[in-house]
Every structure is written in structure tokens, then in C-alpha cells.
TrEMBL record:
A UniProt-annotated Pfam family: Helicase_C
Gene: recG
Recorded family membership: Belongs to the helicase family. RecG subfamily.
Protein name per its UniProtKB record: ATP-dependent DNA helicase RecG
Chemical reaction(s) catalysed: Couples ATP hydrolysis with the unwinding of duplex DNA by translocating in the 3'-5' direction; ATP + H2O = ADP + phosphate + H(+)
Uppermost EC category: isomerase
Coiled-coil regions listed: none
Domain called Helicase ATP-binding: residue spans: 274-435
EC number(s) per entry: 5.6.2.4
Keywords: ATP-binding, DNA damage, DNA recombination, DNA repair, DNA-binding, Helicase, Hydrolase, Isomerase, Nucleotide-binding, Transferase
Length: 685
């Protein structure tokens, strides 16, 4: 049996309800369960009674030393008190609030480990958690205790029990994946032991060893997938060597409404070189907000067209897909390119038509959301995919194309500055290009941090910009009142208020809860300047390009991270007019204040990214939002960067050795690659 395919419902006590909650936590198989690692630990090693400090949280092992009693106050409130004695014979009282049922368990002589606040004057402990000591059973208190993310009916205790059960019953089925010589070389404990220790640590040292081993394993398997995929890719399916003449490139440049910056020209050359070669391109283009990356994406797609193939541009939202589609059509159709749009909200009939064009090769450049990755999409001859780092476009997604018979070049676009070494470990042998120059004539964006009492003054300023023919974004954190959080502005109310404020101008409302067609309509009217003020949540954060907009006003700016504020500010200052960013905020933390100051002080995304790291730590910076960066279960890309490098090098030498594919020592890994669909199973394999 394989744990990766065995559902958690095989465990006693897991019925439909719990199965659902576990599913919400991302646990559906036994493997998910045993690799559901704690996110932190609490040191609850028991202390001797004489060392307890007044007012602090303590853990002690005690024996119940007399009858426990319950006092009720009103119908619900109760206090349970039991006399107890510590192992070094100090007499104390253990106090439970509102848990009258514990009384029945507190039989004299019963041993229990309690954790809670110690009051030296009353000689009592207010119990926060307790664990009865059962002879011969592992207890979770009195040691380092794992803390898990839990939900509803899946309590920490239940989760620990489920994990304990599956490790006990199915532990033997956990395959060892790391080859012996590597385990020896890096002194890694074996997998089963590591999994036991990570959930039920004995000491901080054994816990450390377990973490080290599991982080290595996670990074090693990640690298293995990445590199094996490339290896197979190169050997079995070379990329397209695009045929592109200098004249065609010159013609492209001439069609542009502007002259490319030096940086754009340099990166364009790098892309052309890559695409001419047979080795599939794997390039990351990094450039700050508004630096002009889009035209490079269009160039790559155009090169595919010139060679008789297709280019796909994959973007994170429908708003962006629409925007890129319009811009691509405007630029490329005069060059004879047929552009197509594919997004989830299209009507069946329209979708069918687009799919047919894609399959027949009538559409040359296809722009879309993840809808492009769906099964029904068949390309005629796809030779380049352009995507961004927000998009999860890893081995799995490439496999989708490979199974369809394509080995496209890949170009990633990113406005998030990822340090080069880190980028290499994440994306493998990735080439990096920098667009480190803004288009000429850009005026710096003036940034102001104001407190809410200056709101009216700011709105008057916004109105003066509108009077000059410009447009404005007004962004706030929430969509509607039902989400009400004290003191936080919601878009629906703000919209109503601003309609009055900006009488004579059109105000529009945009947020994630609108239907796709509504969003599209609002956005189109804003682009066409039928709407002058767009009240929005952060759905407009990435990539939106309306160069006539000169004001970005953000309500409750303290609720956004630096990277997000920088992206929002990047929506203005994209044209010839001077622009302003107004951050309205009354931060209640020092870090919040620091963020506002940093935004005022610099407009450089790299500097802000570093500041963000410093203020929030790597976990959050590389966290949820940058979803293109893989989220690891246990490894931390910044803290454990060294382990990632070692894993990367070891995988490289494994894969390069011919023995890798044949020796039994590696068979588990090869099996793993098949399970992960990196190696395709073929008849006769
Ligand atoms: N060389 C140039 N000269 C003048 N304008 C340019 C140049 N390159 C791009 N632009 C214009 O600058 C604006 C921003 O460019 P683009 O949308 O490509 O930025 P981006 O790098 O994708 O930014 P973001 O990361 O914010 O999406 C667009 O209106 C684009 O037409």
C-alpha cells in the first residue's frame, strides 16, 4: 500500500464530518497527515515546584492530593479546585475555570501534568492545559509540545492522536527516499524516525536532527523533480529553434509607439538569442513596476509567430488578460498576428470558437488565465509560454504541455526582486535578465503619508487632478459592510461617499466579488475614461495599466504589506504626467509606521523588498502572495538556503550519473518521479 493514496478515513474515528475538516486543512491521505508538520513548538518540560516563578506560565507534574470541588457562579461560570502536590512535595491548588467536568477525573492519587499561570500568593496554578499521565503511554505535556494549525472539530489532541495512530500502524510503509550514501554523508537520521521526532520530540536536539533531515528531504525531492524534468526534457524533446531575422525584429520595434529603453533592448536581445537556440529557454525577466516588461512578453510571442508557431501569455487575473489582449491585438495585429483571449468566464459558444482557433493554429498569440492550462485546450504548435512569478508554473504545468506534445520555451516576468541565488535554487538553471531602467520622461511619483483627519484635503487634491483631465484610483481593504472591522474602510461605503464628493465626474466600483463581466465592464469604462475615479480593493494591484491615472489614494494603508503598497503605487506614474500616491493611515505598530516611512523615502522596489524582509521576515515575504515561489512544508528558503544549495548539487550529480536510472539504491526515487508524473510511464517500462 502507499500512504500517498490511502485516504485518512481508514483511521478509526474519522467519519465524514472530520474528513471534511481535515480536507480543509489540506489533509486527505495518510501521507498528508504524517507530513502535516507542527508550525511551532512549546517547551513544556516540567519544572520542579521550588523553581516556579510568580506570574509566569509554568508546567509541573503533580499528583491529586485530595477531593476536588466545583463552585458555580451563575449558570455557566464555574471554578474547579483540586489540591495537588508536586514531585518535590510542594502543596498547591490547581484551578480550572468553566470546565466542571474535569472534577470527575481528578481522583486522589491521579498523576497529571498541568500548564498555566502560577500565583505565588495564593499558591495556585490557573490551568490552561492538562494531560493525565497514563502509565506506559506517551504524554505530550512534560516535554516539547508541537503546535499545529487546527480547525473546528479537529482539535490539537485529536490531530496528535490521529498522527500517532498512523505512524504506529503504518510507519513501516513509509519509504526511505534519500539514498544511503547521502544519509551517511550528511549524517541524516532515517525518515520514519524523523517523522516520529517531528511530531513527538524527545529533546530539542533530536527535534533539530529531525527537522534537518526533513528539510533536506523536502528540498532534495523538489530539486529532483525540477532537474529530472529538465533532463528528460532535453534528452527526449528538444525545444524549437526559432528562426527570426533582424529585419523582422526591426519591424517590431518600429511598430511600437515608443522607443525601447536601453534595458528593454538588451533584454530583448537575450530573449532572441535564447529562442534561436535548440535548448528550451528558461528565463526570468525582473523589472520594477512600470519598467516596461509587457512589450518583452509580446516580443517573445511574436517570435513564436514568425517561426510558424504559437505563443501563450498566462496571467493571474481576467482583468489583466483582457488588458494584455487589447494591447497585444493593437500592437501585433498590424503585423499579421491573430491574437485570442481565453478566460474562465467566456460563454460556451465563444469558448468553443477560441478553442477551435487555437487547435487549428489560426490563433497565433493566446492570452489567458489558468483556463489555458485546462484539459480541453489543444494547441496547434505551442513554442513559447510567457508567465509571471505569481503564477504557479512549475514542473506540473510544464508536464501538461509536454503530454500534449509541446516543449515550449518559458519566460517568467517578475516585479518581485528575488535574489539571484535564491532564484536559481527555486527555478533551477534559470537565466535572469534585468530591466533596470524606467522609460524616459517618467516623473517621480510623489508619495505622502497622511493621517485620516487630512482626508478632506486629499480628496480636494484628487478633485483638482480630475479637473485637469486625469483619473484616480482610491483603494481600501474591505469589500462591503458585512465584513465590518472597526475603523476599516469598505469599498461599497466609500463608493457611495465618493459619488457625492466627486459630483460631475463618474465614479466606478471594482472588487473581487463582482461577476467577471461586471469587472470587465468597469475596467473597460475606466480605460476609456468614461469613469474617472475607480474605487477598488486590491484586485487592481498587479499589472493594471491606465497611464492617464495620476493619483493613487490608499485608505487604511497600514493594512497592506510593503510589497503590496509598492505594487499599488506602481499603478500610477506610468505615463507622461506627474503622479501622486497618498497613503492614509494611522498605524498602531512601530513596524506599520516604518512601512509608511519607507514608502515615502524610496520608490525603488529592490530597496523596499529588503525593508519588507527586515520588517516582516522571510516567511511572509515569500509567503502566500508570491505563490509562484513554492511553499514548502518545513523548509524556509531564506533560513535554510544552504541546505537548498547542497540538495541542488547532490541532485545534479545523481541525475548526471548513468547509474541513477538503474541502480536499486535509487529505485525509490525513480518511483517517486513516476508518481509525480515527471517520468511518464510508458508501455514496456
Ligand atoms: N520604452 C518605453 N517608453 C515609453 N513608454 C513605455 C516604454 N516601455 C513601456 N512603456 C509604457 O509604460 C507603461 C508600463 O509598461 P508595462 O505595462 O510593460 O510595465 P510592467 O513592467 O509590466 O509593469 P508592472 O510590473 O507594473 O505590470 C505602459 O503604458 C507602456 O506602454
Amino acid at each position: 500500500m502507499t500512504l500517498g493514496t490511502t485516504p485518512v478515513s481508514v483511521l478509526p474515528g474519522v467519519g465524514p464530518q472530520r474528513l471534511r475538516t481535515l480536507g480543509l486543512l489540506g489533509i486527505s491521505t495518510l501521507l498528508d497527515l504524517i507530513t502535516y508538520y507542527p508550525f511551532r513548538y512549546e517547551d513544556r518540560n516540567a519544572q520542579p515546584g521550588r523553581e516556579l516563578v510568580h506570574g509566569s506560565r509554568v508546567t509541573v507534574r503533580v499528583t491529586v492530593d485530595g477531593a476536588a470541588g466545583v463552585k458555580y457562579r451563575g449558570r455557566r461560570a464555574s471554578t474547579t479546585i483540586a489540591p495537588v502536590v508536586t514531585e518535590d512535595y510542594r502543596r498547591l491548588h490547581a484551578v480550572w475555570f468553566n470546565q466542571p467536568y474535569v472534577k470527575d477525573q481528578l481522583k486522589p492519587g491521579r498523576k497529571v501534568t498541568i500548564t498555566g499561570k502560577y500565583d505565588a500568593n495564593r499558591r495556585s496554578i490557573t490551568v490552561a492545559t492538562h494531560d493525565f499521565v497514563v502509565a506506559g503511554e506517551t504524554v505530550h505535556s512534560d516535554r516539547i509540545v508541537p503546535v499545529y494549525n487546527v480547525k473546528a472539530d479537529i482539535t490539537p489532541k485529536l490531530l496528535r492522536n490521529l498522527i500517532a495512530q498512523s505512524v504506529k500502524t503504518y510507519g513501516g510503509e513509509i519509504p526511505e527516499l534519500i539514498p544511503l550514501q547521502l544519509r551517511q554523508k550528511y549524517r541524516l537520521i532515517d525518515r520514519l524516525e524523523a517523522i516520529r521526532e517531528i511530531h513527538f520530540p524527545h529533546t530539542s536536539d533530536t527535534l533539530h536532527q529531525a527537522r534537518r533531515r526533513l528539510i533536506f528531504e523536502e528540498f532534495f525531492l523538489f530539486q529532483l523533480k525540477l532537474q529530472a524534468f529538465r533532463w528528460v526534457h532535453r534528452h527526449e524533446q528538444p525545444g524549437v529553434a526559432h528562426d527570426v531575422t533582424e529585419e523582422a525584429l526591426a519591424q517590431f520595434a518600429e511598430t511600437l509607439p515608443f522607443a525601447m529603453t536601453g534595458a528593454q533592448r538588451r533584454v530583448a536581445q537575450e530573449i532572441v538569442q535564447d529562442m534561436r537556440g535548440k535548448t528550451p529557454m528558461n528565463r526570468l525577466v525582473q523589472g520594477d513596476v512600470g519598467s516596461g516588461k509587457t512589450v518583452l512578453a509580446f516580443l517573445a510571442a511574436y517570435i513564436a509567430f514568425l517561426s510558424g508557431h504559437q505563443g501563450a501569455i498566462l496571467v493571474p487575473t481576467e482583468i489583466l488578460a483582457e488588458q494584455h489582449f487589447r494591447a497585444a491585438a493593437e500592437l501585433l495585429e498590424p503585423l499579421g498576428v491573430k491574437c485570442a483571449l481565453l478566460v474562465g468566464s467566456q460563454k460556451d459558444k465563444e469558448r468553443k470558437e477560441v478553442l477551435a482557433e487555437i487547435e487549428a493554429g489560426a490563433a497565433n498569440v493566446i492570452i489567458g488565465t489558468h483556463a489555458l492550462l485546462e484539459e480541453g485546450v489543444r494547441f496547434h504548435s505551442l513554442s513559447v509560454v510567457i508567465t509571471d512569478e505569481q503564477h504557479r508554473f512549475g514542473v506540473e504545468q510544464r508536464s501538461i504541455f509536454r503530454q500534449k506534445g509541446h516543449a515550449p520555451d518559458v519566460l517568467f516576468m517578475s516585479a518581485t526582486p528575488i535574489p539571484r541565488t535564491l532564484a536559481m535554487s527555486i527555478f533551477g538553471d534559470l537565466d535572469v535578465s534585468l530591466v533596470d531602467e524606467l522609460p524616459a520622461g517618467r516623473k517621480p511619483i510623489q508619495t505622502f503619508w497622511i493621517t485620516p483627519d487630512k482626508e478632506e484635503r486629499s480628496l480636494r487634491f484628487v478633485r483638482s487632478e480630475l479637473a485637469k483631465g486625469r483619473q484616480a484610483y482610491v483603494v481600501c481593504p474591505l469589500v462591503e459592510e458585512s465584513e465590518k472591522i472597526e475603523g476599516v474602510v469598505n469599498a461599497t461605503d466609500l463608493y457611495e461617499m465618493l459619488k457625492d464628493w466627486f459630483a460631475g465626474f463618474q465614479v466606478g466600483l471594482m472588487h473581487g466579488k463582482l461577476r467577471p463581466t461586471e469587472k470587465e465592464d468597469v475596467m473597460r469604462r475606466f480605460v476609456d475614461n468614461e469613469i474617472q475615479v475607480l474605487v477598488s480593493t486590491t484586485v487592481i494591484e498587479v499589472g493594471v495599466n491606465v497611464p492617464n491615472t495620476t493619483v493613487m489614494m490608499v485608505y487604511n494603508a497600514e493594512r497592506f504589506g510593503l510589497a503590496q503598497l509598492h505594487q499599488l503605487r506602481g499603478r500610477v506614474g506610468r505615463g507622461e504626467h506627474a503622479s501622486t500616491c497618498i497613503l492614509m493611515s494611522k498605524p498602531d505598530t512601530e513596524a506599520g509606521e516604518e512601512r509608511m516611512k519607507a514608502m515615502v523615502a524610496t520608490q525603488n522596489g529592490f530597496v523596499l523588498a529588503e525593508k519588507d524582509l527586515e520588517l516582516r521576515g522571510p516567511g511572509e515575504f515569500f509567503g502566500v502572495r508570491q505563490s509562484g515561489i513554492p511553499d514548502f512544508k518545513i523548509g524556509d528558503l531564506l533560513h535554510d538556503a544552504k541546505i537548498m544549495q547542497v540538495a541542488r548539487d547532490e541532485v545534479q550529480s545523481c541525475i548526471r550519473s548513468p547509474e541513477f536510472w538503474t541502480l536499486p539504491n535509487y529505485s525509490q526515487l525513480v518511483e517517486y518521479l513516476k508518481q509525480e508524473k515527471v517520468l511518464l510511464e510508458r508501455a514496456g517500462d
